[in-house]
Design a protein that fits this description.
The chain is α+β, with helices and mostly antiparallel strands. Helix content is 52%, strand content 10%. It is built from nine helices and four strands, in the order ααααααβαββαβα. It has a four-stranded antiparallel beta sheet with strand order 2-3-1-4, with helices on both faces. Helix 3 packs parallel to helix 5.
Amino acid sequence: MTSFRTKSFAECTFSRHLLLRRWQTTSYQTGWRFHADWFLPEVRTVVTSLAASASVPAPAAKSLGAARARNGVGIGETMTDFRALFSAAEKTLDVDALQSVAEGWAEVAETAPPISCTDVYTGLATQAHFQRRIHEVSSLGTGPDCPGAHAMAIISIAGPRDSRSHCWTLLARLGEAVKGQLHGTGAMAMYQNSAVHVLFPFSESNLCRLVECKAALEALGDGALGPARLRFYPLSSAGAAVAAATATAAQE
């Protein structure tokens, strides 16, 4: 049985990361349906508690259950996921903590509004769904979802001239253009405050696709969204120079 109780701070930090990865993998193997929705800030809190003290306090477990309910996860999937944590840690299931998870889920489920991952105006990701994906990618240190393999892009467009927001028909066309240009890239996009935010797997071809997406947006509505400005923000410093050079070449 794995023990996290007597380890040094450095070892405990490694154990938290290792436990997080093991839990995620085990949860996927036991039936978690939508991988991009698994990580939440409450997940890290629970992992930290179990790694540091070999237990999950009731408030932390309850908060996780409540967060799962707010994100539209069913009670069965929530409890299966929590059991996967103890399997990953090679520990006996804490029944009291599991009950706290169920209590947190039940308290929220009755009053929580319906959850949607899609913005009704653009058809792109909602802010909450986009932020969850950012958290998930940022929490992983190795593998295909590590921060070094992803980058952020922000396409800032011209703001509306005569109102507080662009008309809904133009926003719908914006969403269609973004989805069409980024189809097959593995990217996730969100529209907010006259800007399209894109989280995408880092590659030269994807950078070029984003430049093409910018051009497509500038062409909408007889140029109503132009001129647009494209900026790249690699999620690791190692990729910054490569991104800058590639982006400059692509835009030229």
